[in-house]
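Repro:
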Amino acid sequence: MSYDFSSKLPMFQNRLLKMWKHYSKLARRQDVVCFRFYDHDLPEFPFAIEWYDGVVHAAEYKRKHGMEDEEHEAWLQACREVIATVIEVAQEVIFMKQRQRKAGRQGQYEKFGEEKAEKIIREGGLSFIINLTDYLDTGLFLDHRITRGMVREQSQGKRVLNLFCYTGSFSVYAAHGGAKSVTSVDLSKTYINWAKRNMQYNKLYNEEKHEFVNADVMEIINELPADTFDLIICDPPTFSNSKRMEDTFDVQRDHVVLLKKLLKACTDDGKIYFSNNYRGFQLERDALPATVVKDITGATTPFDFQGRLHRACFLIEK
């Protein structure tokens, strides 16, 4: 029995048109050129769809759809045509991927294809290299747009540590904000190289001030000297069991141990921006030797993620 999806497409088109009009108007008002405008709004069309200043990134959440491979390809193509019609762009600038629901982060490192499509986009007066084809994510998490701005405002003259740095967007913002030094750490060599490229592209790179470390963050944390950093950004995976790590990491189970080590590495008035994507995450405030623990999830949620964001964000002061 073939899968009949044609009758549902008008519903998808109507919803997409409504969301596109709403979010693109808000984006123009705020001078934002990269934003998410659809996130699994309809169960029959489970996509996260983002606009990157002229191109579309549509990631399909993995689920049991009951379609054969050929039917699924036809469905994806029909969805692509709907997106192109609504936004009035060519299908060639719509990049579609399948996003898997997974506990760890290692899937991000796996390549999707050989056809590399990179684009330079602007955010907050800075430039970032995004990759629309090779990996699960583009290289810029749009939900942390506001948090990056906060870090920039706090960075003047500060020694900054960016852990699980991904492609280094927080590091670039910190450098632009006048940080005295920025140390970026990630387990992935791909991401560390990408982070360095982002810093170089913005003409901010200074080898005496900016260090890029390809290593297991957990090992680095154990070796951090006390009272060293004024500002730490830490956005760990929900769960990790990388072959390069000796132990597994679970953010709910292990966050207190992690944060205690980071607080020790902070200067007396040091601050930590700590976030994670674990649904239902509960911060064990009383277990932390900190003077201030502030939930800034709401304050760091951009307009395009209001009511649809599943991450927590905290400002912790020593």
